[in-house]
Design a protein that fits this description.
27% helix
């Protein structure tokens, strides 16, 4: 099965309505280029570090501007539209970093809440505590689409290979990694992580990213990418600015890569045995 996939690169700001306009413009561009699956970045609807500012624009899923417009666009354009994520207000006061997939009829197929929270202190002084605002998801998600089996991850999830491995073993042929990678971590790890996840699982990786300096002061790495199961970069955007990447995806390449390097089949269970060397914690008898 062959289809065209698109990764939409954005520089979302603090105004959801303006971000929705940008999303719609770029999604239409991707559809005009023949893409039947279109992915937008993490936090498509708003990037806002200020908690009070974020909460002032939060809506529940039923009333969210991005959700409504994405459903309408998917139906109008007859595409699978994957909102990488957008913040959704929850009844308990927390926020979900939630992705959505809409079908060509405009109906929601599924959603996915980011599992791993970006709680880190970087050596350039940046400090992030996603868990202070967001409620982590607890369920991995994979959906069987007409063109292949699509698995879900969001940004920091890419650093947890077990999430990708479990979905690959379950049959995933494409993994989505919409992101808002920081510039510092992106320069160091973005490409190598995406290519590693593709290679070690023998699948396609599609990663739409946020890019550039945002209204809230943060700077994201950009370089949206589409990677094939052999680790080849099929398409890549620049470090800043809006972009629409489109690549031809031949799902048959997944089985080809897995036949050449059958590591999913060759994996074995094992026991870890720790040995304490003489001179550490005492003298060996």
């Amino acid at each position: 099965m062959t289809f065209k996939a698109a990764a939409v690169q954005m520089c979302s700001g603090v105004d959801p309505a303006r971000n929705v306009e940008t999303m719609a413009k770029l999604v239409r561009e991707a559809a005009s280029a023949g893409a039947s699956y279109i992915q937008t970045p993490e936090m498509t609807g708003v990037l806002q570090r200020d908690r009070a500012g974020l909460r002032s624009v939060l809506r529940d899923e039923a009333n969210d501007l991005v959700v409504r417009e994405a459903a309408r666009l998917a139906g109008e354009l007859g595409v699978y539209l994957h909102v990488g994520s957008t913040p959704i207000g929850l009844p308990d006061g927390k926020v979900a970093n939630r992705g959505f997939l809409f079908g060509p009829d405009g109906a929601k197929i599924c959603d996915y809440d980011k599992i791993h929270m970006f709680d880190v202190d970087l050596d350039n002084g940046e400090s992030w505590r996603e868990s202070a605002v967001y409620r982590p998801g607890a369920t991995a998600r994979m959906v069987d689409l007409p063109f292949g089996k699509l698995g879900f991850a969001i940004c920091y999830d890419v650093r947890f290979p077990e999430l990708f491995r479990q979905q690959a073993v379950a049959g995933a042929e494409i993994m989505s990694v919409p992101a808002a990678f920081t510039r510092q971590t992106g320069e160091a790890h973005w490409e190598v992580l995406l290519r590693a996840r593709a290679i070690e699982n023998g699948l396609f990786v599609i990663a739409a990213a946020q890019a550039g300096r945002h209204e809230d002061g943060r700077e994201t790495f950009g370089h949206s990418m589409i990677v094939d199961p052999w680790g080849r970069v099929l398409a890549q955007a620049g470090p800043t600015g809006e972009a629409v990447l489109v690549a031809e995806i031949d799902v048959a390449a997944v089985s080809g890569a897995r036949e050449r390097i059958p590591n999913l089949k060759n994996a074995r269970d094992f026991v870890l045995d720790e040995v304490v060397a003489a001179g550490k914690g005492g003298v060996a008898a």
